[in-house]
Amino acid sequence: MITCRELEDFIADYLDGTLPKRQRFVFRFHLLLCRECRDYLTLYEQTIALGKAVFHHPDEPVPEDIPEDLVRAILAARGRAKN
Amino acid sequence: MSSLADESQAEPLTLLAGLRGGDERSYEELVRCYGGKMLSVALRIVGNLEDARDCVQDAFLQAFKHIDRFEGRSSIWTWLHRIVVNSALLKLRARRRRPEGFLDDLMPSFDAYGCRIEHRGGTQESIETLVSRKETRDAVRRAIEELPEDYRNVLLLRDVLELDTSETAEYLQINPGAVKTRHHRARAALKKLLEGTIWMGKS
């Protein structure tokens, strides 16, 4: 049996699927018995999903090409930097 | 779109030679070839077009200035990607309005027996519903900006740009073990920061 505190160190590997079989069993057994860790893990995973979703959802549409005015601005700045 | 912008036609060796020689057309070709992809990457991290444009401009100016540092061992895109990612991460650092949260405050709590202290929380809504609202997106971005920079950067590289552990380690110049630890703690901290706003108590 492991404590909740000990479980914390295994969460990353558990979610990656890289926990060895025996440790995975111990981990899951703990979850079965521990509401707090179940709730924590659920919210932890939802946080991951939410974070990814937010950053794949930019507030503005992703332009296909670099806008022409930006190309010119960059080249103009290069010109200034050169001199 | 000019043929210069077609990446498959950009010959890396001639382009590189042109850049090193200070050939202006090579600079333009570089911008047109890679600018769009760089803008996408920057936009993903910083969230708005204006800041993303700044990052791309800054990245190209750095690339032009330090072309001598590019040894040609990686592809041009790999090199530029790294520069624009760093530019975007710095942009986030500059945005910070409040001092960074102290990470310990954001870590999970355990009692004297090692038992977790966890308050019931969560949401009835799906991720899709949540993320469709601008307030949610803003709240999540603000929370991420509150994370200590070292943890925020790992989170962004791993979860947003989907770099693997070893790539992340290289970008940030830390070892892979540190990437794993910081990644986990960043996620735990973000969860905590979202409690009380997005992860409110179940009604």
Describe this structure in words.
The complex is a heterodimer of chains A (about 80) and B (about 200). Chain A is mostly helical and about 80 residues long. Chain A has helices at about 5-10, 10-15, 20-35, 35-55, 70-80. With about 200 residues, chain B is mostly helical. Chain B folds into two domains: about 5-95, Rna Polymerase Sigma Factor, Chain: A, CATH 1.10.1740.10; about 105-195, Winged helix-like DNA-binding domain superfamily/Winged helix DNA-binding domain (Arc Repressor Mutant, subunit A, Orthogonal Bundle). Chain B has a two-stranded antiparallel ribbon. In chain B, helix 2 (about 25-45) crosses helix 3 and helix 3 (about 50-65) crosses helix 4 (about 75-95). The longest helix of chain B has 23 residues, at about 25-45. The model of chain B is unreliable at about 1-10 (pLDDT under 50). Chains A and B meet through helix 1, helix 4 and helix 5 of A and helix 2, helix 3, strand 2, helix 5 and helix 6 of B.
Write a compact overview of the structure shown.
With 83 residues, chain A is mainly α. Chain A is 72% helix and 0% strand.
What structural keywords apply?
heterodimer, A: 83 residues, mainly alpha, 5 helices, 0% strand, elongated, B: 203 residues, Rna Polymerase Sigma Factor, Chain: A, Arc Repressor Mutant, subunit A, 2 domains, two-stranded antiparallel sheet, 63% helix, disordered N terminus
